[in-house]
Design goal:
The complex is a heterodimer of chains A (283) and B (440). Chain A is mainly α. Chain A is built from 14 helices and no strands. The longest helix of chain A has 24 residues. Chain B is of the alpha+beta class. Chain B has three domains: 208 residues, 2-Layer Sandwich (D-amino Acid Aminotransferase, Chain A, domain 1), CATH 3.30.470; 87 residues, no CATH class; 129 residues, Cathepsin D, subunit A, domain 1 (Beta Barrel), CATH 2.40.70.10. Helix content of chain B is 24%, strand content 31%. Chain B has eleven helices and 22 strands. In chain B, strands 11-10-9-8-7-12-13 form a seven-stranded antiparallel beta sheet. At the A-B interface, helix 9, helix 13 and helix 14 of A face helix 1 and helix 4 of B.
Chain lengths: 283, 440
């Protein structure tokens, strides 16, 4: 806390002297990495060690028919492609399949398939706590903005309205980042432009549903999206699964393929529908 | 009820809407204006369109004074009743209108709303849309007591030219006068055979009265019921859809009109009717239906609600013998006396071919459909007809199969489908039996 206040005083002193200070790049490349977070979207030494070590330890047979992807992975890793990028890519179809299953077998809707998947990647990058915090902040801003425009009877056309919302959101996120020295959460410094953009996208969806339908639907869909993203996050960061994906990519992809087909062919009632129609079923 | 009788979203989309609806039909139904154009060509009554706004420039030259004092502003591809403004009358100061929700709107408000619609604020995934203004259809007097401010409508689900299920949708205070269920409107199940409401559902829960009042929601008789059903079936023909929900409003003077057509109808209708849609769809899937009239006749025979039986059960269960005298209604309307066997071993009621022929029941108009039956000589087609009879003081209308029953003593066998509320006493003496047989 003390150091935070100090930071502000230094900052204020600086601004009074000269306005030019080193501008940070839009993509976060913090000098000091926190040890707690093994961000898969960024190069972090310990993770590379763990996964690369695994690759080295695995003994492989002939390339065909069971090992082509394994060899390809080793080739690209040798030429500098990070293992975490490959792991992430391999797990992404699984996450997408889980989201699809959540809709067709359980009945959770969310905002399509892209948004929860992207949000889960955001959680991996900046941590679920900061991710949800940022998300709630942005949603709060969009609700406030809506209430404000209704109260003040400002009516803008659709896209200018959205642009204005984005402006408010950016100001809010900036304020949060300016407060970083006070909050002092290590993940906060990892916040980069992409996670913010993806969360803004979600907030856009939220306010669109709110405008078109109702606040209740918007909150429901958003909660479902968050749940889906959190579940996906657990899958993406579950270490045994990461290792399995890297060591047996053929098996993983094939299993996911079969799973997706099975989900796509399912025409029975969804779990939520069993509940919804329970009176008909028991009656 | 078996879970396989209920239609879920997966099955609706994958097994029915996708298979039975053409891409062309779906694209027409997605646009309310295009739908209306096709319906109009077919001579199907629709609320009249007064104006269409395709581009923002269209609002510039528009003369608002030309509109009648009540109208509805709608997005062409709106979902679930969103983005609709219903204007009921001109405001007293003359520079604006009063909506059904008693809010005042001016020309500027409407213009901005049209621009919102054009930008796609109310369409799926915000694709640019078209706005239009149409005739306001007020409440029919039959519903005046039950609906809150807005206009109630009747949703009929049609499959293979047969109206399989119907409900009345009543706007509430919560739904802000809109008839959409997830906005908070009430769904009331309707008996297909009589057009009388059966059970009301609000937020997926059973209610008996209009919220906040003591008005019963069951037992409402829908006026022009047969016409409503026929119109629902006819509305799908020109649009090339085989499974759809047709939304029908009753114009106070002009009668039933089609409001819009939905190729992925909602599933809450099953709760309001206490019936599984999937089972009903399967029942009519393979029938050969000639026209709307035929489809309505089949529906009335197949999906008559059992609530009239239930009323009778309350009156007391009747005990009958295995052989009972019945009266059959001939096509000419005359009553014909005969003796029937009450057979709990049979499901459907059947009638002897010769007798059916005599009574004119095999006339083309009275045949519902043909059923394939495998017999000793191979498969043959047997007609299933509409049969009305009186048994122990009860009038029953039911589909009945026609069979050559030369070896049987009784020209009619009543199956257990029509034996609700009846107990059968097997202790019947040989003498009594002889007596009855002699009567035949």
């Amino acid at each position: 806390m003390l150091s935070g206040i100090l930071y502000w005083r230094v900052l204020l002193a600086q601004t009074s002297n000269k306005l030019i200070s080193p501008t940070p790049t839009p993509f976060s490349t913090p000098e000091i990495k926190s040890e707690a977070r093994d961000g898969l979207t960024e190069e972090t030494e310990p993770v590379i060690d763990r996964l690369e070590k695994l690759l080295d330890e695995q003994e492989l047979g002939a390339v065909w028919p069971t090992n082509p992807i394994k060899y390809a992975i080793r080739g690209s890793v040798a030429s500098g492609v990070p293992t975490n990028t490959i792991t992430m890519l391999l797990l992404l179809p699984l996450v997408a399949a889980i989201i699809a299953a959540a809709r067709h077998i359980i009945g959770l809707r969310g905002f399509g398939i892209f948004l929860p998947a992207a949000l889960s990647v955001v959680f991996v990058a900046i941590g679920p706590i900061v991710g949800i915090g940022l998300f709630l902040l942005i949603i709060a801003i969009s609700i406030l903005y809506r209430l404000l425009t209704i109260k003040a009877k400002i009516r803008l056309q659709f896209l200018p309205n959205k642009a204005m919302l984005l402006l408010f959101v950016v100001v809010g996120v900036l304020l949060l980042l300016f407060a970083a020295p006070i909050i002092q959460h290590p993940d906060l410094t990892n916040v980069s432009i992409f996670p913010v953009l993806i969360i803004v996208l979600l907030a856009e969806n939220f306010s669109r549903v709110q405008l078109g339908k109702s606040a209740k639907t918007a909150i429901n869909l958003t909660t479902e999206t968050l749940v889906l993203a959190l579940v996906s996050y657990v899958f993406l960061t579950y270490k045994p699964l990461q290792e399995f994906a890297l060591l047996y990519p053929e098996i993983l992809l094939l299993t996911v393929l079969i799973f997706i087909i099975a989900v796509g062919k399912y025409v029975g009632l969804r779990l939520i529908e069993f509940w919804r129609f329970r009176k008909l079923i028991s009656g | 009820m078996k879970t396989s009788a209920i239609l879920g979203r997966n099955a609706r989309n994958q097994l029915y809407s996708k298979v039975y609806n053409s891409a062309r039909g779906k694209s027409i139904a997605a646009s309310k204006i295009r739908t209306k154009r096709y319906l109009k060509k077919e001579g199907i009554p629709i609320p009249e369109i007064f104006a269409i706004f395709k581009k923002p420039q269209d609002i510039l030259g528009f003369d608002w004074s030309k509109l009648p004092s009540s109208f509805v502003l709608k997005p062409n591809k709106g979902l679930g009743g969103n983005g609709i403004i219903i204007v009921k009358k001109k405001s007293e100061d003359g520079d604006g209108w009063i909506t059904t929700l008693k809010r005042k709107v001016g020309e500027e408000d409407l213009k901005l709303h049209i621009l919102d619609i054009l930008e796609g604020a109310f369409s799926i995934s915000n694709v640019p849309d078209i706005a239009y203004i149409e005739e306001f259809v007020g409440r029919h007097k039959a519903f005046r007591k039950y609906a809150y401010r807005g206009t109630p409508d009747i949703r009929v689900i049609v499959f293979n030219k047969v109206p399989v299920m119907a409900m009345l949708r009543l706007p509430t205070k919560e739904s802000k006068g809109r008839a959409n269920l997830h906005q908070g409107a009430i769904a009331v199940g309707i008996d297909i055979a009589t057009g009388i409401t059966t059970k009301a559902i609000w937020h997926d829960k059973i209610i008996h009265h209009k919220p906040g009042t003591k008005r019963k929601l069951h037992g409402i008789k829908i006026p022009n019921w047969t016409r409503v059903l026929k119109l629902a079936v006819e509305s799908g023909r020109s649009i090339d859809l085989n499974l759809f929900g047709s939304d029908i409003i009753l114009h106070p003077d002009k009668g039933p009109m089609i409001l819009e057509i939905n190729y992925m109808p909602g599933l809450a209708i099953q709760l309001a009717n206490e019936a599984g849609l999937r089972k009903r769809l399967e029942k009519v899937e393979d029938l050969k239906i000639q026209d709307a009239e035929h489809g309505v006749k089949v529906a009335k025979a197949l999906f008559a609600s059992s609530f009239s039986d239930r009323v009778k059960v309350k009156e007391g269960i009747k005990t009958l013998s295995v052989f009972e005298e019945i009266k059959i209604k001939s096509v000419a309307g005359k009553k014909f006396k005969t003796v029937a066997k009450l057979d709990t071993g049979a499901w459907r009621t059947s009638i002897d071919r010769a007798l059916a022929e005599d009574l004119g029941l095999l006339d083309k108009e009275n045949v519902l459909w043909y059923k394939k039956v495998k017999g000793a000589i191979g498969s043959e087609k047997r007609p299933v007809i509409n049969l009305t009879y009186w048994l122990a003081g009860r009038k029953i209308t039911t589909p009945a199969s026609v069979a050559k029953r030369l070896s049987l003593k009784f020209p009619v066998i009543i199956g257990r489908k029509n034996l609700k509320g009846i107990l059968i006493d097997p202790e019947i003496t040989a003498e009594e039996k002889k007596e009855i047989v002699q009567k035949v």
